[in-house]
Predict the 3D structure of the following.
Amino acid sequence: MRSASPISVVFPPLFLLLLPAAACAGEAPLQKVEITAASGLQQRRDDTAAKIIVSRDDLAQYGDGSLAAALKRQPGVSVVGGEVRMRGLGAGYTQMLINGEPAPPGFSIESIAPEMIERIEILRSATAEYSMQAVAGSINVVLRKGASGAEREWKLGAGRQDGRWQPAASLRVADKLPGFAYSLTGAVERTADDVAGGTTETTSGPAGTPLALRDTRTRNASSVNKASLTPRLHWTLDNGDAITWQSLLDWYRTGFDGVASETVLLGMPTAYPRNGATSQASVFSARSDVSWTHALGAAGKLTAKLGVNHNRRDTDYAFHGAAADGAPLLLRGVVSDAIDDSVNSSGKYLGRLGGGHALSLGWDGSLIRRSESRRQRDTYLAGGAPYALDEDYTADVRRLALYAQDEWDVTPRLQMYAGVRWEGLQTATEGRTLSEVRTRAKVWSPVAQLLWKLPEQERDQLRLALARTYKAPATRNLVPRRYTINNGNSANNPDFQGNPDLRPELAWGLDAAWESYFGKSGVASLSGYARRISDVTVQRLFQRDGIWTASPFNNGTATVRGIEMDVKFPLRTWWAQAPDLDVRANAGRNWSSVAAVPGPGNRLASQVPATLNLGLDYRLSPGMSMGGNLHVQTGGLARLDAHASSHAGVRRTLDAYALWQPDAKTRVRLSAANLLRQQQLQGQSYVDEAGRSDSVTRLDGSASLRLMVERSL
């Protein structure tokens, strides 16, 4: 184990300084706070752990077809290429949970239809009960639960984007009987797009002399057909015990067809100036678990859970390379698959003790195996020996965690949470051309949180949290399989290869927040955070036999910090005669610095620097409402190493919706996404003593319309 970070020595006294003042404040009478908003707001206010609740109604409000689209409007959340991030940090720094359990390998949040979700919890700091792989925070997806009575609901709809129809449908059936309850939610959907774009590549010598200039026009069409099913059974036994079985099944099939045409204005062309690619992929994902709850007297409860996960992806890919005149040169066929299987077990004992204490003890363990195989066959149509490459790898990850935590109501105005979690991690990677490589790591993770309701106040409170978290290597990054570039391999467009020697990253973090609750449903908060990360993962970019390859490795430390603001309230809170209008706004600013990478722009994991959301919801009548949201996400320079960097443009999206409720059981929702149709910009640069090369890609933006009809039976 490594020695304690200086942050761990400095931060704990802050709790000790606040404790006496807060305890004295407990002598003042606690005033009643009137909050009649949804229970999610009450839970956010009362939970010791900082948590934002996104309800099912919030997820459905804009009629989004994916969870990522809905989450981007939440405080401190950004979305990059379908990856949901907190504090702007991707690449595994944001932990995804399903019903409180770490999401299995291969999981994509895009695979879950919003209709499957009961609520989403955004946790800004870690807790001992959940995995501590939450450097940036956690997003917990809670699946739909059983109903209090008979429930029947269906939704039908269709959208249109890039001239393509996108139908969708879902059905939910649920009921509660004596001693037994069940629910079943199913959804099917097809999405498709057709995106045009272009890439400009320039190369110059040491003195800035232009050496090459190429412009490539692209057109990529893709489609996704997916189906999801969430069955849930719940039994209440005669002795008061409860058994719950819940599963999440996802099937989806993707298709891709892309073409590229290159124009050379200066210098030499790439190997295949005209090229195209087609692929079909099928993915099946299954998650199933059984939990048992047993009461131990009047003040104790034991919960145990056993689950299995399976994810399989099969891909058939073909690349056609041709000369500038269209003469065929290369036919490359690749057949690959990746299988992620895991078994996990968890359990918790919860006991209510005297003096306002609630003690929890538990365990959490999993066995994960990732298997990959790839078969590549190249045929050179202009002559030349065919090429064959076969690769097989497996990576095993074993994890065991033990934890204890205590939630303590010190006074009516002061709540404290303290916990510790031990996690052991072992990885083993081997393949056809790789001898077995093993790594071991053990992490002690203390965590403490404080909630102090200020004296003589009925609405303001302060939060403080300290935690040690970590980020384990993704199994994909442990497998040394090379993901190759078909055409134009360069420093700005390298192959990728995993590293079986990767170690976990360790982090100390501090979170602080001020919150104010006012009126019937108003809330305002201002928060800040800081992280210090050791053994941070950075990129190693190297050239071997003329081929550029990028690979991850551990190197040094990084610091992360930022501030967030969140406010929402009905306008009538301040003006009684105002229209029935709700105002929402949130903003976040993030900074980071990687010690091993020279600045400026040495941001961790290409961190999103800033996010902004401005939203309005207007109720014209009890049966008619509408609203809109402006989302802004900045980019800028991000240094990857001493020579390579990337650049992302600012992204602005405007979404709107209108909802009509002709009766209590029917809803008609019209939504529009990305009304600004802003072009996306992404660039890469590489600079060394031999000169400079730049690549800038622009993708056209498109708006989409979606009409949904919802009916409860």
